[in-house]
UniProtKB/TrEMBL annotation, chain A:
Source organism phylogeny: Bacteria, Pseudomonadati, Pseudomonadota, Alphaproteobacteria, Hyphomicrobiales
Cofactor dependence: FMN
Family annotation (PROSITE patterns): COMPLEX1_51K_1, COMPLEX1_51K_2
Coiled-coil region list: none
Ranges of residues in domain NADH-ubiquinone oxidoreductase 51kDa subunit iron-sulphur binding: 426-471
Family stated for the protein in its record: Belongs to the complex I 51 kDa subunit family.
Keywords associated with the record: 4Fe-4S, Iron, Iron-sulfur, Metal-binding
InterPro entries: NADH-UbQ_OxRdtase_51kDa_CS (IPR001949), Nuo51_FMN-bd (IPR011538), Nuo51_FMN-bd_sf (IPR037225), Nuop51_4Fe4S-bd (IPR019575), Nuop51_4Fe4S-bd_sf (IPR037207), Thioredoxin-like_sf (IPR036249)
The protein's name: Formate dehydrogenase iron-sulfur subunit
Pfam families the UniProt entry points to: Complex1_51K, NADH_4Fe-4S
Entries under Gene3D superfamilies matching the protein: 3.10.20.600, 6.10.250.1450, NADH-ubiquinone oxidoreductase 51kDa subunit (3.40.50.11540), NADH-ubiquinone oxidoreductase 51kDa subunit, iron-sulphur binding domain (1.20.1440.230)
From TrEMBL, chain B:
Enzyme class: oxidoreductase
Cofactor: [2Fe-2S] cluster
Reactions catalysed according to its record: a quinone + NADH + 5 H(+)(in) = a quinol + NAD(+) + 4 H(+)(out)
Pfam families tied to this protein: 2Fe-2S_thioredx
Similarity comment text for this entry: Belongs to the complex I 24 kDa subunit family.
MF terms (GO), sorted A to Z: 2 iron, 2 sulfur cluster binding; metal ion binding; oxidoreductase activity
Positions in coiled-coil regions: none
Enzyme Commission identifier(s): 1.6.5.11
Positions with a binding annotation for [2Fe-2S] cluster: C84, C89, C125, C129
Record-given protein name: Formate dehydrogenase
Superkingdom assignment: Bacteria
Keyword Aminoacyl-tRNA synthetase: no
Gene of this entry: nuoE
Keywords: 2Fe-2S, Iron, Iron-sulfur, Metal-binding, Oxidoreductase
């Protein structure tokens, strides 16, 4: 019987040597004359164990990791093809605590299937949601998505169904579905993982959105920093087109829907939805004032659904299993599951999909296992470069949109970066301002100029020049940026800055610097 | 202002890129990407050609070209090394890693080595945040950078 060996082709795994492992496995297969097939799957998201090689045996899948090219010969010696014991044996991957504790709805297939095999996708429950949607009235699809409680996973948390309803209710000769795959926030990689590991779930979600709103054209705007994701999505769209999932008729229905993949060009601000629309139109990625809402006047002035990758990729399961099924996960007004991305200085970094409600402490200490360096955790930035720094004292905060807002933070795209006690929070605050200055689109003054003045003010503070005055100035500046900026870039940069000042005041008293100078 | 007329060869190559992408909706950014792929950067002389083909003003094309970090004004080195400097990598010492790389290559960020072997750039997130610190060499991703991996990179650049 032919053996199937899984070696992730996900860029996280590639960055850790998966390509060399695959080459070594190929060589061993040929040298030993083994009847085996290699599948380049996505990642299951356990990055401290990547590259994680799996083999399908009669008793189920068996994993090994982290595998390097030099381990490959010994793995075959140990009987890898039958799941033989080796020092890198991990056993059944489904039973690894990091996997077993998750609730994988959106990421159900990621790391398991061959990303560009539509047969594999269907064999693992794919297309069931779209098949149901094809036989439903658009308003009923919208209703089901609304009832599921799904909110925009890009960060804003706006109810997905409501956005769709506005587009459905706006008459136009052309409507669009735009997928925001400009995942620029540090600590986030969920979009990348799903596009590389299970691209059809995004295509299916977009096709459902098309059926629900009478939109016939979709764009996936992927940041250029993700060449692997762009390549996989390109291939998957072609496969879907050949199979009749996309094209003039979606699965034999009377409506057509097609998707085009577009690459960004290295502008963080294009993750802001109106900047992204301008960029797609071939303009500078400058923010648009709202109203008009993109749902009414979006891409090329037409009604447009613009959703994050994970929002769209969560729709197929909502359509397949029903609104109630999805809604039963979560807490408060945060329904369903959220793929938490645990990153930075952390022992067990990776993607952990779970119902809303875990506390920050559980995520960092129990699931993440503390820092990679073994030093105490000092701060955790939640929600990317525009998210607040949380100290240990706030580790009881449950992962929920409203609970984080109550503590002057945000969950954003659910990426968290762990810092150990060597972190200098003044430096982090300065970086937040500097990053805003580099990436500001320049349209509004608080963001464009405020960020540069912020860097200068924090530099003066560092040099101990009238420190009290600088702190008052930066606080005032943050207030202006927060309430005077057009979009989240200028509006949310105050979160990391003010949270650092508020929770780590000792780092903003340049006493040590002053003493050294005396 | 007198514009230097573009060479025939450059104009032809630019026209070929344009004609392939012109029928897309919002074709300007795909065209700029295409031109950069063709020449390794976006030569100034191509901008008026693009503007005319898309019925845009030169100012509009210039504005878009200069807005995005990706589009190069000059040719890059034979290799391009992008080192992530965003928060998740910072938490794993990307500052020190960048300093080592700069010393090893003898250049700073946004610079190209004198022999034209390599251009060094900062990048803000490669989505390898659980494999930090990370970098990208000619489109290939590298995670958990350390002194050994920096040596390997330097070797590949010199070869």
């Amino acid at each position: 019987m032919s053996v199937t060996i899984y070696i992730p082709g996900d860029s996280g795994s590639l960055s850790l040597g998966a390509e060399k492992v695959a080459k070594a496995v190929e060589k061993e297969i040929a040298a030993r004359g083994i009847d085996a097939r290699i599948v380049r799957n996505g990642s299951r998201g356990l990055y401290w164990l990547e590259p994680m090689v799996e083999v399908r045996t009669e008793a189920g899948r068996v994993a090994y990791g982290p595998v390097s090219a030099k381990d490959v010969a010994s793995l075959f010696d140990a009987g890898l093809t039958n799941g033989g014991q080796h020092k890198l044996s991990l056993g059944d991957p489904e039973k690894l605590p990091f996997v077993a504790k998750q609730t994988r709805l959106t990421f159900a297939r990621c790391g398991i299937t061959d990303p560009i095999s539509l047969e594999d996708y269907e064999a693992h429950g794919g297309l069931a949601g779209l098949r149901k949607a094809v036989s439903m009235a658009p308003a009923d699809i919208v209703k089901q998505v609304t009832e599921s409680g799904l909110r925009g996973r890009g960060g804003a948390g706006f109810p997905t169904g409501i956005k769709w309803k506005t587009v459905l209710d706006t008459a136009a000769d052309q409507k669009y579905i735009v997928c925001n795959a400009d995942e620029g926030d540090s600590a986030t990689f969920a979009d990348r993982m799903i596009m590389e590991g299970d691209p059809f779930v995004l295509i299916e979600g977009m096709a459902i959105a098309g059926l629900a709103t009478h939109a016939t054209k979709g764009y996936v705007y992927i940041r250029s920093e993700y060449p692997h994701a762009i390549a996989v999505m390109d291939k998957a769209v072609k496969v879907a087109r050949r199979a009749g999932v996309l094209g003039k008729s979606v699965l034999g229905s009377s409506q057509g829907f097609d998707i085009e993949i577009r690459s960004g060009a290295g502008a963080y601000v294009c993750g802001e939805e109106t900047s992204l629309l301008n960029s797609l139109e071939g303009k500078r990625g400058v923010v648009r004032a709202k109203p008009p809402l993109p749902a009414i006047q979006g891409l090329f002035g037409k009604p447009t659904v613009i959703n994050n990758v994970i929002s769209l990729a969560s729709v197929p399961i909502v359509m397949d299993k029903g609104a109630q099924y999805y809604k039963d996960f979560g807490m408060g007004r945060s329904r369903g599951t959220i793929p938490i991305q645990i990153a930075g200085n952390v022992k067990h970094g990776g993607l952990f999909e779970v119902a809303f409600g875990l506390t920050l402490g559980e995520i960092v200490d129990e699931i993440g296992g503390g820092t990679a360096t073994g030093r105490p955790v000092k701060a955790v930035q939640v929600g990317g470069p525009l998210g607040a720094y949380f100290p240990r004292a706030l580790f009881d905060t449950p992962f929920d949109y409203e609970e984080f807002a109550k503590r002057d933070g945000l969950i954003g795209h659910a990426g968290i970066t762990v810092f150990d006690d060597s972190a200098d929070m003044l430096k982090q605050a300065r970086f937040a301002m500097e990053f805003c200055a580099i990436e500001s689109c320049g349209k509004c003054t608080p963001c464009r100029i405020g960020s540069t003045r912020g860097v200068e003010t924090l530099d003066k503070l560092k040099q101990n020049i009238e420190p009290e005055k600088q702190l008052a100035l930066v606080t005032d500046l943050c207030n202006t940026m927060k309430f005077g900026s057009l979009c989240a870039l200028g509006g949310f940069t105050p979160y990391p800055v003010m949270s650092a000042i508020h929770h780590f005041p000792e780092d903003f008293r340049p006493a040590a610097v002053a003493q050294a100078a005396e | 202002m007198v514009m230097q007329p573009a060479s025939t060869e450059l104009a032809e190559r630019t026209a070929a890129v344009i004609s392939e992408l012109k029928n897309l909706e919002g074709p300007l950014i795909p065209i700029l990407h295409g031109v950069q792929e063709e020449f390794g950067y976006v030569p100034q002389e191509t901008l008026p050609i693009i503007a005319e083909a898309l019925n845009l003003s030169r100012a509009e094309v210039h504005g878009v070209f200069t807005f995005y970090h990706d589009f190069r004004h000059h040719p890059a080195g034979r290799h391009v090394l992008k080192v992530c400097q965003a928060e998740a990598c910072q938490s794993m010492g990307s500052d020190a890693i960048a300093a080592q790389i700069k010393q090893k290559l003898g250049i700073g960020f946004h610079e190209t080595s004198k022999d034209g072997a390599v251009t060094l750039e900062p990048i803000y997130c490669l989505g390898l945040c659980a494999c930090a610190p990370a970098a990208m060499l000619d489109g290939e991703v590298i995670g958990r950078l350390d002194a050994d991996k920096i040596d390997e990179i330097a070797e590949e650049i010199r070869s």
